[in-house]
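Lesson 9: reading folded outputs for more than one chain in a single document. The general rule is that every protein is listed as its sequence immediately followed by its structure tokens, and records are never interleaved. Here is the first one.
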Amino acid sequence: MMRLNEFSAATAPTRLARLFAALIVLASAAAQPGNCATMQSTSPTKKFAFNLFRKASEGSTDNVIVSPFSAYAALSMTLNGAGGNTRKEMAEVLGVPANDVGKLNERSRAVFDTLNKNDKVQMEVANAIYSDNSCRMKDTFMDICKKYYSAEAHSENFNDPQIVGKINGWCSEKTHGKIPTIIERLSPAEKIVLLNAIYFKGTWQSQFEPRQTLDDLFMSPKGELPVKMMHKRGKLMYMRGENFQSVSLPYVDGKQRLIVFLPDKDVELPAFQAQFTEDNWSKWMQKYASADVSLSLPKFKVDFFIQLNKALSDMGMRQAFSQSSADFSNMVKGDRMYISRVLQKTFMDVNEEGTEAAAVTAVIMAKRSVSLQQQRFIEFRVDRPFVIALVDDETDSILFLGSIVNPKRK
């Protein structure tokens, strides 16, 4: 359920691109230099990010805000437990060779270490695995998650009503209360929850002056909406695209920025979203230049929730969700597991001082049912004369054989 405070823009067309761009920046911050013009364009995380955004946005008339970084991190950790074609599909969606996941793990650890060591903005990344104490988790999988993802391991009784509160408590703690809950319930079959949380808080290099924030109107497809509009004039990194314009607003350390994309008035949002590809992103990032800009930007606070099963399946990660064919043999001993749900919640607050943002992604694993097909019952009504035979299989003897035409007891 999405909620807006201060800025209500349930169908605001430009908001989607702006919020999405901010999370792309967070996702690639550790690997990208501070200047827009030098940003790299080819990385599996970017391809994943654009694909996830497009799939998550399909058919939506509401705000959409996803954290590609958080989803990528949680799924990367999960990938280490996959085998066979499940591993191949997941690796392909994540943009890595299925036979060389080790490099993904190394890169993940390097990114996490870099983000967590930032001393000018507050950036925190955390991972955890909650498993039912009946699950025999494989040591190799758990060792990888601890070594490369610094994942906290929690073996719990999932029949305990407190387990949901414990998982949500971890999410709230790691996001400083911005994501207080990620799950409302666990089904009896759900036995493992893999979590990633990211928290960001940074101030602008050049803050907006609060006294210049004025009441204004925002034109949404459903009509005018009242907003608090922030204003700033000065040198900004600016880029004019084919059917949009964009500014880059750096945070105090120069390593992260909020990129704002504003489509032209006659451009429909779905058409603009379709332009977010690796090639276009690379071209756009080379075009930013310092310019005199008079910027008006609504302040807003938004949170968003989405189940990513369909989006990830559409991207090619199908078998992982299949109860009949998912292979997570590298994660658990004995039990056949599959991904039942991938959930994500995000939060973002943009104001005169800077930005606060948080996300949690939960990959929930369930135990495969013993019977995968619905039982079919054959109709067998004994309402007419019938034959019986009592046999002894050991001696292959028919002990009794007869026909019953009147089963009434004497």
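And here is the second record, again sequence then tokens.
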Amino acid sequence: MRKILFLFLNVLVSLNLFAQQSVNQETPMADQMRADGKIWVVVVVIGVIFAGIIAFLVNLERKVSKLEKQSKK
């Protein structure tokens, strides 16, 4: 579980490096979505997907741990 968490944190840190943009550069699509209020829909959908993946991984880890304990007996 620690390896997965470490890998996940590294991915998040490295993605932040690629997300840097200059202050003067505009993104018309993002500006329009913010103006329409639809950006929050995108944020919620991404959050739900992320929560689902985390829940799946936690559930999978529990099942694997349970099987490992059974195989030791």
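What the second record shows: Residues 23-73 form one domain.
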